[in-house]
Amino acid sequence: MVRQEDDRDPRPVFEFIKVHQAEFRISTMCYVLRVSRSGYYSWLRRGPSRWAHADRQLLPRIQQIYEDSHGRYGVHRIRAVLRRSGLRVSPRRILRLMAAAGIRGGARRGRINTTRADGSTVASDLVKREFRADRPNQIWVADATYVPTQEGTLYLAVIKDVFSRRIVGWSTSARQSSEMMVRALQKAISERSPQQGVIHHSDRGSQYTSTTFQAVCQAANITQSMGAVGGRLLRQCHGREFLCVVGKGVDSPATASVLRDAVGSGIENL
User: Fold this and answer.
1) Which of the two ends of the chain, N or C, has the fewest CB atoms closer than 10 A to its terminal CB?
2) Is 123 domain-assigned?
3) How far apart are CA 189 and CA 158, in angstroms?
């Protein structure tokens, strides 16, 4: 078990587990999302007051450092000042508190996210169509497609490792939802157990900007990257061999269950 780091706020992860406990085993979610079961159950009993109190104490320190720098210090320089004073705080936590306070310093432009009118966060494009990687689990590219069946449309979400060109996570659903994308991501995390930070690249669809999906990425130390909406990532990165997987060797239109089995078999044999 890889336990939660002390300076990483586990609340979004615990909230995700609580919402989805009827769908997945709590022990499985804790393992995949890298938090302890004891920590989760303790959070249920006590509530999030400890982290909220710590944030209330930390925010004035961050604001003071920011003001002393005349607005020049970003996340990493603020973190360095905090560390010199004996506080070890993750960049993600500092960024969250800065955003909550409406302050923005000299953070690297390549990692700055934007916010839509509906409040969802859109990540910057860190890949820029350069689908090359030097090692496994460096860049994962995600996309979705659909196939007509006898019972209606079957949607398929996939995640492919750019280095190995293998599909590491996938999920199907009768509708294109954030839950389908989350299941594909959880499968990839469970399959690969990445130890270093992964860049997860997708389009800017609402399924990838949802609070639930972003919480799973945050918990697994995965950095999101987003290109244009409808960027046809399947064609740009996955290649024609992937597009042929869906329904390969199956009479069309097949039933959803038959097609789902065929998709699984096709992915395993890619």
Assistant:
1) N
2) no
3) 13
Contacts of 125 (CB under 8 A, 6+ apart): 201, 225, 226, 227
Domain hosting 65: range is 49-109
Q: Are 164 and 135 in contact (CB under 8 A)?
A: no
21 and 101 assigned to the same domain: no
Are 61 and 22 found together in one domain? Answer: no
- Least Cα distance to 108 among 126, 88, 96, 134 occurs for 126
Amino acid identity of residue 161, one-letter, is D
Tally of CA atoms within 13 A in the half-sphere of 45 that contains its CB: 6
In this structure, the number of other CB atoms found within 10 A of the CB of residue 257 comes to: 13
- Phi and psi dihedrals of 43, rounded to 5? -65, -40
Number of separate domains in the chain: 3
| One domain, residues 195 and 216 | yes
